[in-house]
Amino acid sequence: MAASWENQIDERVALAKLCFATQTFTPFHVLVAQQFSTFSDDTSNLDPEAKLQIDKINTDVIDSGRDHYKAFSDKVESLKGQQPDQEAWEQTIDDAAAEAKAKSDKIIDDAAATAKGVIQKLPEATRQSAAETFKNGMNKVLVFFETVWNGIKTVVNAVVQFIQNLWGKIRSAWEAVQNAATAAWNWITGGSSYFSGSQAKVAILPVSASVPDVHNQVKPLLEKINSKVNPVTRLSIKKGPDGWIIDHD
Q1: In the chain, where are the structural domains located?
Q2: Residues in contact with 88: Cβ distance below 8 Å, sequence separation at least 6, in sequence order
Q3: pLDDT digits over 150-185, tens only?
């Protein structure tokens, strides 16, 4: 019978694969919202070397996901050198998207198996904390993969208009994936991160950041409140267990 910490890892992997299969990350966002008030990131009893190992598992997933998306993007972009053929192009893009999704499932499964192998070797008293570390890192991985999926859907949907503006969308989607990968990397490893949505922008500073650090991040936003060009219309600063969250529009 699987231990409780193993079941928790399996549940997070199942959630990730559900999001991949349905191409919607609503279940993930609902879970994060439900767990936010009880979120715990206490790894005081976890050996620092073990935490680094687990964090690397998650950052390796990000690196692999970025590479798989780049392969998808490159395959689609190679169509530029071919005679335009809507049916053939649609098939190429659909096949490339299906391949990217299958690879995503595999790297999530492999990451979970690797994490379990690492955690199983730890003292029993620290395994739960180690599993929490993996799950919390996987949350950031899923934020990244949501950008990957949006990038794939952006390209696939462009085919409906027979590749209208496709090449510009390929470039912008790839830039979004690159930015999300960097942000998730920094978030997991304790650096500052910056996520941009369609409107809202969120800066994440590590919980160890000082008040002057936060002030330096916020100062440019305060200066833009009365700006006539791209003014800041909303600003929220919160210190949570995962760090300083600076949210603004």
Answers
A1: 4-189, 193-249
A2: 82
A3: 888 888 777 656 665 666 677 677 777 776 776 676
